[in-house]
Amino acid sequence: MFDKLIQKYSRKKLRYLAKLLKSVGITANFVTAIAFFLAIICFISIFAGYLYSAVGLILFNRFLDGLDGELARLTEENKFGSFFDITSDFTFYALVPVGFALYQPEENAVPTAFLLGSFCLNSSSFLARAITVEKYNLNEDKRGKGFFYSFGIVEGFETTVFFLLFCLLPNHYANLAYLFSSMTLLTHFLRILSTKKQLN
């Protein structure tokens, strides 16, 4: 919901840092790989109960996710880059809830199942809309991304906030997960209605 606004104010600072990294030969795919590695470390930290450490790892992962995009825009198009970036993001989004399911399985397994189910549905409409926009050349703003990125109620910022709340309020994980799942499903259905309206 707030991703565009956040990107508007963070882009200049990220661009400055991206230029510094580019000057020493750091690539966008390398930054994405570091973010992917941090996602795995974050999962292990949550599973092991080091939730405050996970807070820092989540924030650093999301920072790198913004940085690799700015770095990519400073270099020649890399066809693998967009693919690697989105798959790395989805891996991160899946591993954090799974970490909580393993951390306290009796309390967290069922709400995690609902949350991951909503993620799957939302991801399907997210990717299907990107394909539809390209296939039918719909009038959408495609600048700044390797493929069309549809916005909604639940985006990167909201996901990060919920993940941080999971870590800071672990005893409320179930209620937070159900709320997050409901918001994600609403995003999914609104995207379907929006796409149907646009295609009719």
How would you describe what is shown here?
The protein is mainly α and 200 residues long. The protein has seven helices and no strands. Helix 6 (156-168) runs antiparallel to helix 7 (173-199). The longest helix is centred in the middle third of the chain and has 31 residues, at 105-135. It is globular and about 50 Å long. The model has no long low-confidence stretch (mean pLDDT 88).
Which properties best describe this structure?
single chain; 200 residues; mainly alpha; 7 helices; globular
Brief account:
The chain has 200 residues and is an all-alpha fold.
Question: Layout of SSEs?
Answer:
Layout: H1 3-23, H2 28-48, H3 51-73, H4 79-103, H5 105-135, H6 156-168, H7 173-199
* Estimated structural class: mainly alpha
What's the average pLDDT? 88
Parts with pLDDT < 50 across at least 5 consecutive residues: none
In helices, the fraction of residues equals over 70%
Alpha-carbon distance between the termini?
Answer: 25 Å
Strand percentage lies at under 5%
Individual helix count: 7
Total strand count, please?
0
Helix-strand string: HHHHHHH
Which shape, going by the Cα principal axes? globular
The whole-angstrom Rg is 17 Å
Main beta sheet, described? none
